[in-house]
Design goal:
By secondary structure, this protein is α/β, with parallel strands linked by helices. The chain folds into two domains: 121 residues, Periplasmic binding protein-like II (D-Maltodextrin-Binding Protein, domain 2), CATH 3.40.190; 111 residues, D-Maltodextrin-Binding Protein, domain 2, CATH 3.40.190. 36% of the residues lie in helices and 23% in strands. The chain contains nine helices and 15 strands. The strands form four sheets. Strands 7, 10, 11, 12, 13 and 14 form a six-stranded mixed β-sheet that branches. A five-stranded mixed β-sheet has the order 4-1-5-15-6, with helices on both faces. The radius of gyration is 22 Å and the shape is globular.
């Protein structure tokens, strides 16, 4: 009898655990779940009132409205966004994310909704005044090696991290000369404290970081230019089509441009 009771109790506990697990994080009906990394102003950040704000947040909200859905934002590590979208944990990923060959192996991307520029942040008294200053060049002006002492700070898993960690032949710095940080703020702090020579990060966040950290500047020379898009599961082609339609409508209505100009006023 004790044995039977023990087995029954074990089955009951297992059933309860399974039901509890299934209910945790369960998506509500008509909810559009967006994964982001809210440490990337002006695209996504937490405002003074503790709410999510930024270009991506407002565009995602407008998309959700077009689809007749309610937006739910999950603030996660940047490097976990693609995997989470691929597995179906999140419906989409928006975090100033660009399309790369590696990411395309795991997720689909919407049409582009904004252009990003990778900028170079240095200290105001830095001897580095252009991209060329970081490299040793041959007689024909080709980069052959990175100068001694050059250390580049980046946000981990971003395209800045990917590009900078590439070889010199591909206009990178070599992974041995690149330090990846959890977020852009940590990379900039490393620059302020002299741990890295420069930080390479998207231009608009770069402006925000320079604004709040005295003694820094952005070089006139940009590192690269890229297009931002929304990551969506390869299994959810219906959502991809709906989001592309919503983006096209919002663009035609001038809403996308209005949102971008709200956070990035014309110079």
């Amino acid at each position: 009898m004790k044995k039977i009771l023990s087995i029954a109790l074990a089955v009951l506990m297992l059933t309860t655990a399974v039901l509890t697990f299934a209910s945790c994080g369960e998506k509500k009906d008509n909810e559009l779940v967006m994964a982001t990394n809210a440490n990337f102003p002006p695209y996504e950040f937490v405002d003074d009132g503790g709410a999510y704000a930024g270009i991506d947040v407002e565009i995602a909200t407008a998309i959700a409205e077009k689809l007749g859905m309610t937006l739910k934002i999950e603030n996660v590590e940047f490097g976990s966004i693609v995997g989470g979208v691929e597995s179906g944990k999140y419906d989409m990923g928006m975090a100033g994310m660009t399309v790369t060959d590696d990411r395309l192996k795991h997720v689909n991307f919407s049409t582009s909704y904004a252009t990003g520029i990778q900028a170079i942040i240095v200290t105001e008294n830095s001897p580095y005044t252009s991209l060329d200053d970081f490299y040793n060049m041959d007689a024909d002006g080709n980069y052959v090696s990175v100068k001694d002492g050059v250390k580049i700070g980046v946000q981990q898993d971003t395209t800045g991290d990917i590009y900078c960690s590439d070889t010199v032949e591909n206009f990178g710095f070599g992974s041995e000369n690149v330090t990846s940080y959890k977020n852009g703020a940590d990379a900039v702090q490393a620059l302020v404290t002299g741990k890295v020579t420069a930080v390479i990060i998207d231009n608009e966040p770069a402006k925000s970081f320079v604004k709040v950290n005295t003694g820094l500047k952005i070089l006139d020379t940009s590192y690269t230019e890229e297009q931002y898009a929304i990551a969506i599961s390869k299994e959810n082609t219906e959502l991809l089509e709906k989001i592309n339609k919503a983006l096209a409508d919002l663009t035609a209505e001038g809403k996308i441009d209005e949102i971008i100009k709200k956070y990035i006023p014309a110079d």
